[in-house]
């Protein structure tokens, strides 16, 4: 496959131009909130990454962001519990027991593979980028059979993306900094002459010898793959442009393909047709800057109050002793050391203002949803129920965010991981008799955050049944309107239980038929016993009647005999 490298580079620079309007805000967020994150020097490897920032005096915003990212990971993708279910998209397939069991076996193995990989450390860093900068992106690559996939986090500034007509990211350009040795191991003889000479002659590697590699993944066919990845080695020229150092004019360093797009990305929130998102970090950035200024002013006032500026006689220049217990000698009583001005500082007022801004930042990072230290554990059940309802309503604020995470990030990520394991034959063989029924599957999130989004739906179902129960006390016939089987499946979907807990439709049908047969047999047995009892009672009554009639007949005969004896007629 031939690539027009000039058109490729032109496309990259157009996407970089589109990204410029976000870069200044990302730099401010890096300075005030996320020091060390973000790469804004794309022409050569940064000599040193700053892990701290002089702009951060009060770390309340960084702490608030940490609470948010930890809360999202614990509530959505916790490593300590299952957080997703795999379900067939076709509901008819969900009624075929062998396919449901096969999918659940795949689900369990996918969970195990994620634990064996570096997914959970990377996903926490992803949430930091996602909430801090408003956009998160991660690479999902193939690895060994023991850990079939590996993950790599990208930080803002090192990549540009483009979306297709459905809003999904399907194009990415990324700058990678490599040592000559790393480039030689990956690209071999296709490296530039300079790179090959450094490696083959075993020359020492310095910062200046880092190479800038441009990686592009495009929605273009390559062999039997749907996506193409291509690498070029580039250098920076004047005017902010790039040139190629590769020896051959048209051939890239490397070209390969992917079945799925390997860089899932998601925005926290997005405006119109924007490519990049905005997160809570962007929304509270003015308060973060304000907090730092207030903290600096507070510290300056505190220092002035403790060590105020002084007026001193000129002859005491260099001799003034301001240490505790120090002595300053002078003969002229008019030569007095005094403060330049009286520092009148409202400590309580400023501390209250700082606390108000800090709390506003915490609310901007949704800390009120995840922190529960202010709740009374000994509260009455009524109050506890009110707190639970309030928490459920508060978590609804994250509903759109979770939806974007699921559709734009977690769904394609897990889909790719699933397909990698399927291609590596790490799942049980698919039942041959159902080959024609293979279809797409959905990801059902079942973490606490995802369940909180469904809490109102569950409450609606419960409220409905309570209302129906009250009406049924007056007219039991209203129960005929309810499909209880469908309600059970709806309840299972809301609560996120395994589908194998529910019996298959044929099992339910067979169980009901057996129950009906047993009830019919019991009714027949009861009727038989009732009939026998009735017949027995009738037989007893007939015998008694016969005996009575017999005795009556004997009495008549005896009476006639006495009449005859006495000569009566």
Descriptive notes:
The structure is a single chain. The protein has 15 helices and 13 strands. The radius of gyration is 40 Å and the shape is flat. The longest helix has 62 residues, at 505-566. Among the domains are: 5-276, no CATH class; 282-313 and 334-395, no CATH class. It has helices spanning 5-32, 60-76, 97-116, 119-133, 180-187, 193-200, 280-306, 347-364, 367-370, 381-395, 399-423, 448-453, 455-474, 484-495, 505-566; strands spanning 84-88, 135-142, 149-154, 159-163, 169-178, 211-218, 227-237, 241-244, 254-258, 265-267, 310-311, 338-339, 441-445. Helix 1 packs parallel to helix 7, helix 2 crosses helix 4 (119-133) and helix 13 (455-474) packs antiparallel against helix 14 (484-495). Strand 4 (159-163) and strand 5 form a beta hairpin. The chain is α+β, with helices and mostly antiparallel strands. The chain is 50% helix and 13% strand.
Task: List its traits.
single chain, 569 residues, alpha+beta, 6-stranded antiparallel beta sheet, 3-stranded antiparallel beta sheet, 15 helices, 13 strands, 50% helix, flat
Portion of residues in beta strands equals 5-15%
Total helices: the number is 15
The major beta sheet can be summarized as:
6 strands, antiparallel
The gyration radius over C-alpha positions equals: 40 Å
Given helix and strand content, the structural type is: alpha+beta
Distance between the termini: 139 Å
Sum up the overall morphology in one term: flat
**How many extended strands?**
13
Classify the oligomer.
single chain
Low-confidence stretches: 236-244
């Amino acid at each position: 496959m031939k690539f027009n490298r000039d058109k490729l580079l032109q496309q990259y620079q157009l996407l970089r131009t589109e990204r410029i309007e976000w870069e200044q805000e990302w730099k401010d967020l890096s300075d005030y909130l996320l020091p060390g994150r973000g790469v804004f020097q794309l022409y050569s490897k940064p000599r040193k990454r700053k892990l701290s920032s002089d702009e951060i005096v009060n770390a309340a915003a960084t702490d608030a962001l940490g609470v948010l990212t930890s809360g999202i990971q614990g509530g959505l993708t916790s490593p300590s519990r299952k957080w997703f279910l795999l379900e067939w998209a076709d509901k008819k397939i969900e009624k075929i027991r062998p396919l449901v069991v096969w999918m659940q076996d795949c689900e369990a193995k996918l969970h195990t593979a994620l634990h064996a990989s570096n997914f959970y450390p990377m996903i926490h860093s992803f949430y930091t980028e996602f909430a801090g900068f408003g956009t998160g992106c991660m690479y999902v690559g193939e690895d060994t059979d023991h850990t079939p996939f590996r993950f790599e986090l990208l930080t803002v500034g090192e990549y540009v993306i483009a979306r297709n007509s459905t809003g999904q990211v399907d194009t990415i350009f990324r700058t990678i900094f490599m040592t000559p040795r790393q480039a030689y191991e990956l690209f071999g003889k296709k490296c530039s002459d300079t790179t090959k000479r450094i490696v083959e002659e075993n020359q020492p590697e310095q910062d200046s010898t880092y190479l800038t590699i441009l990686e592009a993944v495009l929605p273009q066919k390559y062999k039997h793959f749907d996506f193409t990845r291509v690498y070029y080695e580039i250098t920076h020229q004047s005017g902010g442009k790039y040139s190629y150092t590769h020896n051959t004019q048209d051939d890239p360093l490397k070209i390969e393909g992917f079945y799925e797009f390997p860089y899932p990305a998601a925005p926290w929130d997005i405006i119109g047709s924007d490519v990049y998102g905005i997160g809570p970090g962007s929304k509270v950035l003015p308060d973060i800057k304000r907090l730092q200024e207030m903290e600096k002013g507070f510290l300056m006032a505190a220092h002035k109050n403790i060590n105020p500026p002084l007026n001193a006689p000129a002859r005491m220049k260099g001799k003034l002793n301001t240490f505790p217990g120090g002595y300053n000698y002078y003969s002229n009583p008019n030569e007095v050391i005094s403060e330049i001005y009286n520092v009148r500082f409202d400590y309580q007022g400023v501390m209250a203002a700082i606390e108000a801004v800090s709390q506003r930042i915490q609310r901007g990072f949704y800390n009120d949803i995840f922190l529960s230290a202010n709740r009374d554990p000994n509260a009455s059940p009524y109050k506890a129920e009110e707190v639970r309802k309030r928490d459920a309503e508060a978590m609804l604020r994250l509903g759109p965010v979770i939806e974007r995470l699921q559709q734009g990030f977690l769904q394609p990520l897990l889909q790719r991981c699933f397909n990698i394991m399927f291609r590596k034959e790490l799942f049980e063989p698919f039942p041959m008799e159902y080959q024609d029924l293979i279809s797409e599957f959905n990801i059902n999130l079942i973490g606490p955050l995802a369940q909180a989004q469904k809490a109102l739906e569950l409450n609606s179902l419960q409220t409905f049944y309570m209302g129906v129960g009250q009406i049924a006390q007056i007219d039991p016939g209203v129960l005929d309107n309810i499909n209880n089987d469908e309600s059970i499946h709806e309840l299972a979907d809301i609560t996120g239980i395994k589908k194998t807990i529910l019996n298959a439709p044929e099992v339910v049908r067979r169980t009901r038929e057996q129950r009906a047969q047993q009830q019919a047999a019991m009714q027949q047995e009861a009727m038989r016993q009732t009939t026998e009892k009735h017949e027995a009672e009738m037989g007893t009554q007939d015998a008694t009647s016969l005996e009575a009639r017999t005795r009556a007949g004997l009495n008549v005969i005896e009476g006639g005999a006495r009449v005859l004896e006495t000569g009566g007629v």
